[in-house]
Design a protein that fits this description.
Layout (H helix, E strand, L loop, with lengths): L1 H18 L4 H9 L6 E12 L2 E14 L2 E10 L4 E7 L5 E5 L5 E3 L27 E11 L2 E10 L8 E7 L5 E8 L2 E14 L2 E11 L4 E12 L15
Antiparallel strand pairs: 1-2, 1-13, 2-3, 3-4, 4-5, 5-6, 7-8, 8-9, 9-10, 10-11, 11-12, 12-13
């Protein structure tokens, strides 16, 4: 009789675990629901390691949520005066503009999304917004990443221009923050982004260091956050095309 009782308990426990298992979509919904700022301002040092050489750049990043739009402006303070502006809107492709050091402003077309941003290992696609509803998700299992237990979720864009064939996200179980993203192109691993020195700043989970590494060992780009502030008063005019001049 005891064996039957134990067996029944195991069945009940397994059923309970199955009932509460999260789908890939549910995991990403919890990640998407993390507290986000209305505005942010930060100073970032970009370190590009490529071809045996290292180049440092520094920029100021400001961003703002304005109704259905997200807006961000990157202004390089060294070594050259380059600016990058992006406007995103749910259900539509992002609008992106680049101001060259010569002062000329060019619009980034959808065919240029796979191009390098300021000779780094980040592409214009990596600087685009991400709407949870634009992707299909599949839970792949559990693994460790960045020293934490994570859910592993595959993400595939449903429609529109695709730079990447898929992404695999490592979502920390403790708080649903994404600590690593593996990016695939043409079926193979192309590069991966890892978040480090993760802190809570003004109630916002914030990585103070992020590293994009090419899978073939050809180089990497590190973003070191020197300072960051959230929910400051930023007027919309600071994100207009006039701000690119």
């Amino acid at each position: 009789m005891k064996k039957c009782m134990i067996g029944a308990v195991i069945i009940v426990l397994c059923a309970a675990q199955s009932a509460f298992a999260l789908t890939g979509r549910q995991i990403m919904e919890k990640s998407d629901a993390l507290t986000k700022p209305n505005t942010s301002t930060s100073t970032v040092v970009m370190v590009i390691e490529k071809g045996g050489s290292t180049v440092d750049k520094e920029f100021e990043l400001i961003s703002k949520k304005a109704g259905p739009r997200d807006m961000a402006l990157i202004t390089f303070t060294r070594p050259s005066a380059i600016k990058f502006l992006t406007h995103s809107k749910k259900g539509a492709e992002d609008d992106q503009w680049l101001r060259l050091s010569s002062g000329k402003v060019k619009r980034i077309s959808s065919s240029e999304k796979d191009k390098s941003f300021v000779n780094s290992h980040l592409y214009y696609e990596d600087l685009s917004s991400r709407n949870i509803d634009d992707y299909e998700y599949k839970y792949l299992g559990d693994k460790q990443a960045a020293g934490a237990d994570c859910y592993v979720v595959e993400s595939v864009k449903k429609k529109g221009e695709r730079v990447y064939s898929k992404s695999v996200l490592y979502v920390r179980k403790s708080d649903f923050f994404v600590v690593r993203i593996d990016v695939y192109m043409k079926g193979g691993l192309h590069k991966y982004l890892e978040n480090y020195e993760i802190k809570t700043v003004q109630g916002i989970i914030t990585p103070m260091k992020a590293v994009m590494t090419m899978s073939d060992g050809s180089g990497k780009t590190t973003l070191n956050v020197k300072s960051v502030k959230y929910n400051m008063n930023l007027g919309d005019a600071r994100f207009s095309k006039d701000a690119m001049r």
